[in-house]
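Title: [Solved] Mannosyl-3-phosphoglycerate phosphatase-related protein 3D structure

Original question kept below for reference.
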Amino acid sequence: MPYLDDNLLVFTDLDGSLLDHHSYDWQPAQAWLDRLGSAKVPVILTTSKTSAEVATVQKQLQLTHYPFIAENGALIKLPADWPGNSDDVSGHIIGNSYSEIRQTLVSLRQRYDFEFRGFGDVSKQQVMDWTGLSLENAALAMQREASEPLIWFGSDFDLAHFEKCLQAENLSLTRGGRFWHVAGREAGKGSAVHWLTGQYRQQRDQPLVTIGLGDGPNDIGMLNATDYAVVILGHHDHAMPLDNGENVYRTRQHGPQGWKEGLDHFITL
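Solution (posted by the thread starter after getting help):
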C-alpha cells in the first residue's frame, strides 16, 4: 500500500466520484484533499466535463496549479508554469475537433436515421433538464472542444450499427454515467493518464505511484492505467471489469463518501 509521502499522483473522475451525483457537493472528500494538498500530491481531475467546466471546479477545489484531463481524455490542459509552456494555459486535443465530430454525427443521422440528440442539437434548457445544472453551468458544459455527449433513443441493434459507423470515421463511442460520448478514436482517459504520468516521471526522474478513482464505464481506461484503482459505487448497473487485480478496491458508498473510503483503504498516513 502506498504512503502519503510516496511520490504519488491521484487521477480522479468528478461526477459521481469526487462530486456527488445529485448535488455536485465534495465536502466529504475535503479532509483528504487537504491532506493531499499539504503533501503536495497532484490531484488531476479526469472527467467528461469541458475545459470551461473544469476550470471553474479547479478554482473551487484550489487545484489550479495542476493539469487536468477533460472531455473523457480528448483534451489535456496544462498550467501556465508547466515546463516548456509559453502560453498562459496550453491545451492539447487528442483526435478530432468538436466541429469535425458534429459534422460526422449530423451526416450519419441523416443517412441512417439514427435516433439520438447531442449537446449541439439542443438548447441550454434541455441540457439543464438532462443534467440538473444551472443555466450558467449548462452553458459551460456546451463549450466543447473535442467530444460530444449524446442521449441515445434508438434500439440496441441500431446502437451497434452506429458504433461501427463511428469506427469507420475514426471515432469512438464511450458510455458515461449519464451520456454516451463520441470522440476521436485515439482519445481516452487511459491514454491521457499514461501521457501525463510520463510527463511527471520525466520531470521528477524517479518512480511514481498512481491512484485512480472513478465510478462509470468511461473511467475504466483511467483505472486500468493507474497502479491502484478505486471503483466508486455508481448510480448505474453497468459492469466495471478491471485488469489491476488485487490493487482494485470497490467502495460501499457513493460519490465523495466513496472517494474518501477508497483513499482510506489505499493510502497509509
